[in-house]
C-alpha cells in the first residue's frame, strides 16, 4: 500500500486536491486555503519541528535540496532565473533591494518566508496575502518559460523532502501539519501566479508590439 507521501509522488493531481482539508475536494483552491485551520497541537508540532530543522542552517540545506531536485525535473529553471534577473537589473535603481538571482537566493528567500509563517501561525491566514504576492511576482518570469506547473512541482518535492526528515516523519500529526501548510503555500503561490499571468496576458493582447516598417 502506498504511503501518503508516496501517493504524492505517483499522482499528478494538484496539491490542492491531494492535500485538501476535506475528502470531498469540491471547494475552489482559494476558499480551501482560506479555511486552513491548524489545531493547537499542530501549531506546536510545526514550531518544534521547524526550529529543529532550522537549527544550524539545516532548513536552508533542505531548500537547496528541493531546488536541486526541481532543477532536475525542470532543466530550464536555472536559465529562467538568470534571464529574469538580468532583465530586471537593467531597470532597477541602486537603492532597490538585492535581486533574487539564483537558486541559492531563492533558497534563502524561502527560509525567510517559512520563518515568518511559523512565527505567525496564530494568524496564518493573514500571511496568505504575502504568499500570493510572491506568486504574482513570479509571473514576470513567464516570458522566460516559467510555468505554474513548476510551482506545483516545488510543492510536491517540498512535501517529500521535509516529510522525510526524522523530526517530521515519525509523528503522524507532524506529517499532516506540514502537508497542510505546504499545500496551502503552494496553492496560494500558484493562485497569485495564475492571476498575474492572466492580467499580463490581457495587457499584452490590448497592447500588441508595434511592427517596424520595412525599408522597401
UniProtKB/TrEMBL annotation:
UniProt keyword GTP-binding, yes or no: no
Transport found in the keyword field: yes
Keywords: Heme, Iron, Metal-binding, Oxygen transport, Transport
Domain Globin: 65-189
A molecular function (GO) term: oxygen carrier activity
Transmembrane segments: none
SUPFAM superfamilies, sorted: Globin-like (SSF46458)
Family designation: Belongs to the globin family.
PANTHER family reported for this sequence: BLR2807 PROTEIN (PTHR46458), GLOBIN FAMILY PROFILE DOMAIN-CONTAINING PROTEIN (PTHR46458:SF12)
Protein name: Globin domain-containing protein
Native source organism of the sequence: Caenorhabditis elegans
Amino acid at each position: 500500500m502506498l504511503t501518503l507521501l508516496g501517493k504524492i509522488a505517483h499522482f499528478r493531481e494538484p496539491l490542492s486536491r491531494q492535500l485538501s482539508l476535506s475528502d470531498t475536494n469540491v471547494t475552489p483552491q482559494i476558499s480551501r486555503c482560506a479555511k486552513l485551520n491548524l489545531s493547537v497541537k499542530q501549531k506546536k508540532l510545526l514550531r518544534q519541528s521547524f526550529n529543529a530543522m532550522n537549527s544550524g542552517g539545516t532548513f536552508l540545506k533542505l531548500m537547496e535540496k528541493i531546488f536541486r531536485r526541481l532543477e532536475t525535473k525542470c532543466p530550464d529553471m536555472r536559465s529562467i532565473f538568470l534571464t529574469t534577473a538580468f532583465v530586471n537589473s537593467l531597470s532597477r535603481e541602486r537603492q532597490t533591494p538585492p535581486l533574487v538571482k539564483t537558486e541559492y537566493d531563492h533558497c534563502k528567500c524561502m527560509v525567510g518566508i517559512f520563518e515568518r509563517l511559523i512565527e505567525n501561525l496564530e494568524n496564518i491566514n493573514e500571511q496568505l496575502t504575502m504568499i500570493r504576492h510572491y506568486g504574482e511576482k513570479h509571473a514576470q518570469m513567464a516570458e522566460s518559460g516559467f510555468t505554474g506547473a513548476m510551482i506545483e512541482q516545488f510543492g510536491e518535492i517540498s512535501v517529500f523532502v521535509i516529510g522525510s526528515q526524522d523530526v517530521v516523519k515519525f509523528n503522524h500529526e507532524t506529517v499532516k501539519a506540514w502537508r497542510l501548510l505546504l499545500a496551502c503555500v503552494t496553492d496560494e503561490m500558484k493562485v497569485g501566479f495564475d492571476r498575474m499571468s492572466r492580467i499580463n496576458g490581457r495587457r499584452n493582447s490590448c497592447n500588441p508590439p508595434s511592427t517596424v516598417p520595412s525599408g522597401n
